[in-house]
């Protein structure tokens, strides 16, 4: 349920920060465990009571509903033996917000007479059953979560699809950002797309041990001279990169020594001084600064420029759409909440 996944990102910011995971959401029935069209078996939760935790316009939400949402938000709870103590309060708060929001959305969808075609429900049920390894596992799920009834599962699927359809109409469709909208934003915010001057380069570095004595420093210099000699023998990006992977001692060795594009303000002065005089493919002298020996291969000089609209169009539209989606969802949440009667128990 793509829409519900995204809602969770809006409602559960604090939980995401604590958990470091992409939140997941599933829709829940008022008094029993939910079955979403495309569930994950991580939605199985330890046995919990049906003690009421909230009432939404008279409809009771239970501890079971809350626990399922908590495990959906923190899918590693099963492998961790539960939700970690330090994370649990934020997860619970987010889960409570989510189950209340879903119930409000469902009630509003029903009020507006949203219906789901039977063929779509049938397809969702087929996809749901495919999540299980065997018929016995599916039956065990039905027994634990749906009182052993496939009709109960079907009812839950219809509920989830109804919520999804409502959100698609009220949020997703209205969140689409046209090319014209994106272009207008781009033209009003040129400064956001200015690229500062930079250089793209690779490096091979030799780092003497901390607190080196004279003998160690002499050995490091010898090692650096040999590295420089080998670097000068390379004739391409790949040759230099493979040598960096083999002999360099800085962190960029795992990336073929490639620093990508580095703004001039972030390049060490001794390196920048030489880069300004170089052409692509040339090497600096063996440099010594900050206690290390380095040789740099200049790959490209990138003058300052303004990114074109075509370069940023896709990512800009995506960003704008995400922001628009969040605003619409937040507005919908506030509207439904203020118009209803919500009690936490």
What does this structure look like?
The chain has a four-stranded antiparallel sheet with strand order 5-4-7-6. A three-stranded antiparallel sheet has the order 2-1-9. It has a two-stranded antiparallel ribbon with strand order 3-8. It has two domains: 2-179 and 317-344, Triger factor/SurA peptide-binding fold (Orthogonal Bundle), CATH 1.10.4030.10; 197-303, Chitinase A, domain 3 (Roll), CATH 3.10.50. It is elongated and about 80 Å long. α2 (13-19) packs antiparallel against α4 (88-111). The longest helix has 31 residues, at 309-339. The relative contact order is 0.13. The protein has helices spanning 2-11, 13-19, 63-73, 88-111, 118-129, 135-145, 150-172, 179-188, 214-232, 237-247, 269-275, 309-339; strands spanning 52-56, 59-62, 194-195, 198-206, 258-263, 287-289, 292-302, 305-306, 342-344. It has 345 residues and is of the alpha+beta class. The protein starts with a helix and ends with a strand.
Short note summarizing the structure:
The chain has 345 residues and is an alpha+beta fold. The chain is built from twelve helices and nine strands.
Give me the secondary-structure topology.
Layout lengths: L1 H10 L1 H7 L32 E5 L2 E4 H11 L14 H24 L6 H12 L5 H11 L4 H23 L6 H10 L5 E2 L2 E9 L7 H19 L4 H11 L10 E6 L5 H7 L11 E3 L2 E11 L2 E2 L2 H31 L2 E3 L1
Antiparallel strand pairs: 1-2, 1-9, 3-8, 4-5, 4-7, 6-7
Helix pairs in contact: 2-4, 3-4, 4-7, 8-12
Task: Give structural attributes.
345 residues, alpha+beta, Triger factor/SurA peptide-binding fold, Chitinase A, domain 3, 2 domains, four-stranded antiparallel sheet, three-stranded antiparallel sheet, 51% helix, 13% strand, elongated, disordered N terminus
